[in-house]
Amino acid sequence: MKQFFTLKNGLRVHLVPLESTQAVTVLVLSHVGSRFESAEIQGASHFIEHLMFKGTERRPTTLDISRELDAVGAEFNAYTGKNATGYYVKVDATHLPLAVDLLHDMLFHSTFDAEEIDRERGVIAEELKMYEDNPMSHVEDLLENVAYEGNTLGRDIVGTRETIKQMSREAMIAYRDAYYIPANMVIVIAGKVDETVSALLEKTFSSVSDGQKEPATFEPFLGLSEQSLPRLGLQTKDTEQVQLALSFPAYGVNDKRLRAANILAKVLGGTMSSRLFISVRERKGLAYFIRSWIDCVEETGLFIIRAGLDKERLPLAMKTIREELNMIKEEGITDQELQEAKENIRGKLLLKMEDSSAQAAWYATEELFKETKQTPEEYIKEIQAVTAQEVKEVAQEILNESKLTIAGIGPFDSNNSFLKSLDWETSP
Fold first, then answer.
1. Sign of torsion over alpha carbons 46, 368, 375, 255
2. How far apart are CA 205 and CA 108, in angstroms?
3. How confident is the model at residue 426 (pLDDT cuts 50, 70, 90)?
């Protein structure tokens, strides 16, 4: 049976036993990400994530950490987002003590060696170049830069070349100490969990000082004003294919309308039988890839459509996309589409939840960000209750061209030429 408890220092713990698995995942999620950073230390959350693998007092080097995990066949990694940073180890359950001990050691006893920091500056600079050179991923960064302009949500998670180069060790440690505190973190252990877990946590994470107890803070995003033309983000690049991304303001993680919005995204571009996939790719051959989804943070979100398009036929592609958006606003979705979207969401989620890592991520996210915590089954029940009328209403609210942002990567020398290439003034 699933358990939840709080350690004496305020650190929240979820234990999620799963039958028929020999694996266990230990995930530590901290409520800190790029949206919490000041301009001078952009990229600090991501930089710190890297440094957690560079050596501790008991495991002085990266090799000491990786060799210990590799020796037992563990899967391990970390990730940084706009509002959270996560660290996980997935192992054969007999090695659970190692996973717990090592994560505790990394998170609270990393040395942040000055030479390692300077070496890692170069690594992260190359990572930044990698993202910038990959149009499929970089177009989403461009989109968020503009869609969230004026807010820390609009900054790249990796930071900038200048901040990566100049950020001091003292500033990073101060930032780490402000946010890597028990009250700001959650541990989820999912998979083959036994009675030894409590003792492991008592010996490790429970010994961490509770530090300051103020909740994490950030500058809320206040939304976009309406305007006659789309906001534009552009990277000029001599490519054969144009990477295009569109976004509309959507809902935060606790908004009940998000259920209907997720169904809308599924019907429009969430599957190979979705409207955009069929109309843009299958019927007109304008793209290989096109999809839509919703990306949310605490108080806001984006409804995103992304595609790789034939640069010679951009006007037709944009016209086709706009036609589909207008049609779903005016007519809504069919009962068949509604039912199939619900079953798709249900099926995908249940398949995903067979993995202990997905279970860990689910409950950690629920604990950190949700006002009402749900199991996957409870979420599915809410999805099943969504009506076609609710989907139509969120379509009419979200798909508002006066708040549209468009980002593109391709052979355009200015925003004006980019917009002109879309033949934007042509009515759908």
1. negative
2. 9
3. very low
Q: What is the pLDDT of residues 382-420, one digit of tens each?
A: 999 999 999 999 999 999 999 999 999 999 999 999 999
Residue range(s) occupied by CATH 3.30.830.10 in the chain: 3-207, 231-421
- Residues serving a catalytic function are 49
| 101 residue type, one letter | D
Look-up: residue for tokens 């989109």?
143
Both tokens of 51, joined, read 């440094």
| Model pLDDT, residue 285 | 95
Q: How many residues does the chain have?
A: 428
Q: Residue 428 — very low, low, confident or very high, per pLDDT cuts 50/70/90?
A: very low
Three-state helix/strand/coil letters over the chain: CCEEEECCCCCEEEEEECCCCCEEEEEEEECCCHHHCCHHHCCHHHHHHHHCCCCECCCCCHHHHHHHHHCCCCEEEEEECCCCEEEEEEEEHHHHHHHHHHHHHHHHHECCCHHHHHHHHHHHHHHHHHHHCCHHHHHHHHHHHHHCCCCHHHCCCCCCHHHHHHCCHHHHHHHHHHHCCHHHEEEEEEECCCCCHHHHHHHCHHHCCCCCCCCCCCCCCCCCCCCCCCEEEEEECCCCEEEEEEEEECCCCCCCCHHHHHHHHHHHHCCCCCHHHHHHHHCCCCEEEEEEEEEECCCCEEEEEEEEEEHHHHHHHHHHHHHHHHHHHHHCCCHHHHHHHHHHHHHHHHHHCCCHHHHHHHHHHHHHHCCCCCCHHHHHHHHHCCCHHHHHHHHHHHCCHHHCEEEEEECCCCHHHHHHHCCCCCCC
Task: Say yes or no: domain 3-207 is CATH 3.30.830.10.
Answer: yes
Measured distance CA(202)–CA(132) in Å, rounded: 44
Does this model's pTM top 0.85?
yes
Distance from C-alpha of 32 to C-alpha of 292, rounded to nearest angstrom: 27
Q: Given this model, what pLDDT does residue 152 score?
A: 97
Q: Could you report the per-residue pLDDT of 14-66, keeping only the tens digit for each? A: 999 999 899 999 999 999 999 999 999 999 999 999 999 999 999 999 999 99
Asked if residue 108 has pLDDT above 60, the reply is yes
Query: Across all residues in the chain, what is the average pLDDT?
Result: 95
Range 231-421 classified under CATH 3.40.50.2000: no
